[in-house]
Amino acid sequence: MDFRSDPGSSWLAALIAPVSPDEFVSRYWARQPLFCRGSADRFATLLSWTVLNELLAHHWREPRRFRLARQGRDIDPASYADIAASHVRIRASDVTDQLRRGATLSFDAIDELHEPLTRLSESFETFFRSDTQINLYAAWRALHGLDLHRDNQEIFIAQLDGRKRWLLYGFTADGLDRTGLREHSLPPAGAEFDEILTPGDLLYIPRGCYHLAVPMNEPTLHVTIVPMDEPSSQHWFSTVTPVGSGPCGSRRGLILSPPTASITWWGPFLPPPDQSRSVFSLVISRCSTRTSRKRSPLAGAFGIGLRSLY
Ligand SMILES: [Fe+2]
């Protein structure tokens, strides 16, 4: 999908097609999940492995952005980062080792660092009148990272590369047998939604809906787009919105209600498609040729390229 070729369309309409934004607001927002298949290349201009490699190579002094988790447990940051105040840094070789052993990498607030994601985040902020953060997730093995959980925000998931299995369980996890999950990353039975996301797919998960993501023993990359609870400077409206029963059942609480006004288009800020994910073979070791003191220890450690940890 080339957003630039259709300036009359909105980003949200493109993301959730064939559901219209109005239908999304009235039927899905804060109510029930929405799953939209898309063409494999429609998120190609958002982020590539190459760009991710470069971002990691430049932000290795920011452990706060890094989170590693495996089989439902966060990995102790001290095992892969020097977090003493005097020389805070990520130790690339240890990160790589954890990833090879099945950890999932999350990298927070990547929208602060990469222009296309910045524009996407700003578009969400314009539409939802709420601060928005985009986080990245990458995994290579078949172990789940985060445990079965629910979030206190609405979540949009855009699958960028590879495949990942997503399961939704509704608004209660009572009665789920997690034994197989804890021991072997086998999802509990009883999921209301069980699909494999492929590149170009979008999944919306309303807050409070229990969910689980399981890699499939291949490189997988996705971003989560999260409108936060606190409205931006416009201070529009935060209302108690009665919600009905959907596939995830009924919910209660304060929720943001999005406006139905037209929304901004972020296509002009995207790089041309031919500068995107097509060059996965570009390796992070390329960064190791730099002589700057900011040269990343990630560079040499990842060596063969972040996508290929095998
Ligand atoms: Fe989540």
- Along the chain, the helix and strand elements come as HHEHEEEEHEHEEEHEEEEEEH
Name the shape in a single word: globular
- Tally of individual helices: 7
Q: What's the CATH H-level homologous superfamily?
A: Cupin
Rg calculated over all Cα atoms: 19 Å
List the uncertain runs. Answer: 1-9, 231-304
Total domains, how many? Answer: 1
Q: What's the CATH topology name?
A: Jelly Rolls
Strand order of the largest sheet: 1-11-8-13-7-6-2-3
Our estimate of the beta-strand percent is 15-25%
- The percent of residues in helical segments reads 10-25%
Q: Architecture in CATH?
A: Sandwich
Give the tally of β-strands: 15
What class do helices, strands and sheet pairing give?
alpha+beta
Q: Sheet bearing the most strands, described?
A: 8 strands, antiparallel
In short:
By secondary structure, the protein is α+β, with helices and mostly antiparallel strands. The protein has helices at 11-16, 21-28, 49-58, 92-100, 115-128, 179-184, 297-302, and strands at residues 34-36, 66-70, 73-74, 81-82, 89-90, 104-107, 130-139, 155-161, 164-170, 193-197, 202-205, 210-215, 220-231, 238-240, 254-256.
Description of the structure:
This protein is α+β, with helices and mostly antiparallel strands. The chain has a single domain, classed as Cupin (Jelly Rolls), CATH 2.60.120. Helix content is 19%, strand content 24%. The chain has seven helices and 15 strands. It has helices spanning 11-16, 21-28, 49-58, 92-100, 115-128, 179-184, 297-302, and strands spanning 34-36, 66-70, 73-74, 81-82, 89-90, 104-107, 130-139, 155-161, 164-170, 193-197, 202-205, 210-215, 220-231, 238-240, 254-256. Strands 1-11-8-13-7-6-2-3 form an eight-stranded antiparallel β-sheet. A three-stranded antiparallel β-sheet has the order 10-9-12, with no helix packed on it. A hairpin with a 6-residue loop joins strand 4 and strand 5 (89-90). The longest helix is centred in the middle third of the chain and has 14 residues, at 115-128. It is globular, with a radius of gyration of 19 Å. The protein starts with 10 loop residues before the first helix and ends in an 8-residue tail after the last helix. The model is unreliable at 1-9 and 231-304 (pLDDT under 50). Bound molecules: fe (ii) ion. Fe (ii) ion is lined by residues 149, 151, 155, 211. Fe (ii) ion (FE2) is lined by residues 149, 151, 155, 211.
